[in-house]
Model the fold of this input.
Amino acid sequence: MPVPPQPDIPAHVAIIMDGNGRWAKQRGLPRVAGHRRGVEAVRTATYAARDLGVKILTLYAFSVENWQRPKTEVGALMGLLELYLKKELATFVRDGVRLRTIGRTNELPAGVQKRLHATIEETKDFTGYTLVLALNYGSRTETVDAAQAYAAALAAGKEKPNDRSWATFSRYLSTTCLPDPDLVIRTSGETRVSNFLLLQAAYAEFVFTPVLWPDFTKADLAAALTEYARRERRFGLTSEQVRHPVGVRTP
Ligand code: FPP
Done:
């Protein structure tokens, strides 16, 4: 692959939305109140990213590990997700937002799955802007699923045993047909990746902000994009090679 061009605006931004619980706690409210405000922040970020020139926004909405939270919190999150999808469909269609998901969505409650299928189907032909929800997602389960599917394809003779390329293997990940994230943002001051896009973010830039997710605004996103524009992405090369990429190719 030739050295990718480095525009100032990242085409694909992925966000680890963190801090809903602390936002609620600071106000003496139940955790679900933080998640409710978190949904509002999802709406804000969706349109802020598009207005700032981002083409794909991936939001980490529910991880495979999140099932271990108290049953009432998991139930509330699923309820919020279903309601969000129900309310958002008309807006997505009006504004040309394509919805996609990554993760084992077949394990989500039936009502959520139904809303997801309807929204994905209704918005599948939009090409300008894509919102990706990571739901029941974790990089490790994704990698295991991909390895299994790849092994089956090899056994069936659909892939060549000596290929061993990332280009081929990555087609078995749930992010197939999506470019890698250019920028990963995590809110709430935590500086972890928490099993999120571990393979796809191999060359992403990371921005960590202390802002709690329910408080995350368009200005916060713009600040992260400004920080991104200051970075030099080297993809394992030297700065000199990146500036004069004649004949240089990334692996
Ligand atoms: C992390 O905050 C947030 C989550 C685990 C869930 C994110 C969910 C939403 C933003 C709302 C639902 C999403 C959609 C797309 C409708 P936390 O609860 O871990 O916060 P804490 O670390 O402060 O406790």
